Amino acid sequence: MFNFKPELYLKIIFLFSLIALISAFFIEYVLGHQPCNLCLIERIPYVISIMIIIAIFFIKKNQKFLVLLLILTFIFSFAISFYHYGIEQDFFQESSVCGAKSLDESITKEDLLKQLIEKPISCRDVTFRIFGFSLTSINIMISLLFIITLLKILNKYEKNK
């Protein structure tokens, strides 16, 4: 049986998070597929995970706590992605987050008119697929895989106490 090395798996999660963000920006800015608001929110856990993993490798303290934060980050990622997938499949209704162009309090009449003229990106519409899967469904699978892996890493830290 192979030797489970938490550092290797953390590096893989770091690398994948970086690739996921680069891919999202490539799909948006180069390929021209505009993301909905939930798609934008689904990027946040990847940014957070990159920062936490950097902290794990450079600070070398509180690694158990930081891994727990990573687990919570990907639980959030899973929850948002599951909700988004439910909207795509008509299990859930779109929330106001999906239609909001700007969440600022200070919106002018001109901004409001411009938003009404522009066609908003619906959270229900899947504009990009990989091997027939929406990016949201892929994010669900990746988040679950990362949660399981991080739970194993946390368990390894518990045993090494």
Total strands: the figure is 2
Q: Biggest sheet: strands side by side, in what order?
A: 1-2
End-to-end separation:
23 Å
Low-confidence stretches: none
Helix content: 55-70%
Cα-atom radius of gyration: 18 Å
Shape: elongated
The third-level CATH topology is: Bromodomain-like
Summarize the helix and strand pattern as letters.
Answer: HHHHHHEEH
Task: Sketch the major β-sheet.
Answer: 2 strands, antiparallel
CATH-scheme architecture:
Up-down Bundle
Mean pLDDT figure? 83
- Beta-strand portion reads under 5%
The level 1 CATH classification is Mainly Alpha
Number of helical stretches of at least 4 residues: 7
In total, how many domains does the architecture comprise?
Answer: 1
Question: Describe it for me?
Answer:
The chain is mainly α and 161 residues long. The chain has one domain: Bromodomain-like (Up-down Bundle). It has helices at residues 6-30, 37-41, 44-59, 63-88, 96-99, 109-117, 135-159; strands spanning 129-130, 133-134. A hairpin with a 2-residue loop joins β1 (129-130) and β2. α1 (6-30) runs antiparallel to α3, α1 (6-30) packs antiparallel against α7 and α4 packs antiparallel against α7.
Features:
mainly alpha, elongated, 161 residues, Bromodomain-like, 7 helices, two-stranded antiparallel sheet
What is the topological layout?
Blueprint: H1 6-30, H2 37-41, H3 44-59, H4 63-88, H5 96-99, H6 109-117, E1 129-130, E2 133-134, H7 135-159
Antiparallel strand pairs: 1-2
Helix pairs in contact: 1-3, 1-7, 3-4, 4-7
